[in-house]
Amino acid sequence: MLRALTNAMATSSRRVPIPKNGVDYRNKIVLAPMVRSGELPSRLLALKYGADLVWGPETVDRSMIGTTKRFNPVTSTIDFTRSPSNGSRIPPPVQKESLIYRLHPTEEHGKLIFQIGTASPELAVQAAKLVAENVAGIDVNAGCPKPFSTSGGMGAALLQTPELLASILRALVKEVGEVYEIGISVKIRLLETPERTAALVRTLCATGITGLTVHCRTTPMRPRERAIREQLRMIAGICRGEGVACLMNGDVKNRDEALQLVEEFGADGAMIATAAEANSSCFRSKAEGGLLPWREVVHEYMKLALEVDNRWGNTKFLLSQLMPGKLQIYKDLAGCKGYKRACEALELDNLCDQAREVDERLGISEEQLRHFNEAIKKAKTKNKSAKAAGGQMGRDKSYGTNNKNLLSERGVGATPAMAV
Question: For this structure, is 246 an active site residue?
Fold first, then answer.
């Protein structure tokens, strides 16, 4: 059946035109969209080591709508923020707006693809318009199998509603792609049968998109399960016939392997995910030296994270992915609550002064955290005292109530009823 589908595909060399401000996905090895591993310093590190394009983490349409766009003079970035929604009674050391998305207008110019999580054409357009003039393309996530995405009808759930997915893409092409002159693309997973996958790909290619990425796993499959590539040649052929660039994703370990797989299966490019999370120098070819030692990669990552004031929690997670887990330094890092301590643990002495400044801007310096923890401790003590006082008042009230005579004992209601 696969052979029949492949033979039936068009062999036209036509291409969907790439808009003036867009980018052609062909002949590109790119960084995949990853929720925690696709933040700005990770993307900049991938570009440094040779990634041709970078996808940002999936960002839900509703989280972008209503944000304020600002240029950050400290980090030279463009930030999309909103007012914090937490109800904490104790304000943090540095009260800041919640950062929803951050990009670098020069370092990522022409190379950043904004991936959107959506289940609505209208909301997708609203959100995409906010960032369209600062990115090279908008990509719709139709492949994430995680409940936080599928429960809202987004991600891989869109594979079961192909007409809705197609309507989202058509709306983005017309109202965002044509207006801002950037490309619109989609990332999908394999369906249950080659026939269903082929039908879906044809439907999506007819919407006006410039690119399609296929993750070579079905929705129920997890990363530990081997990617299945039997349908890839067929999918690439359909895309080629429709003039749409096709990227492959799934178990791609480095640039050299990516180029080999692209040649073998006829795709136009490849996307690297977990391998880049473990060592971003995977984008270097063997001729360029291949993978670098983890210490060198960590050093470069920390420099970039400090330059853009990356959230410490995200940086700490990425460091845990880049470092060997059996080392003592890995365990030491787990106890670090800020950049300064981390740089000391990693023996990055040349970054310690900068780390101290970043900690202060983020409100996580040792002194700021000490004052914050003291404020929380005082608030808890005050709350316990209030509860204790309230409890005593309750007991006093209960005691007084228990010692009151019943109404009947005080003569109330003891008078014989009168006939009416």
Answer: no
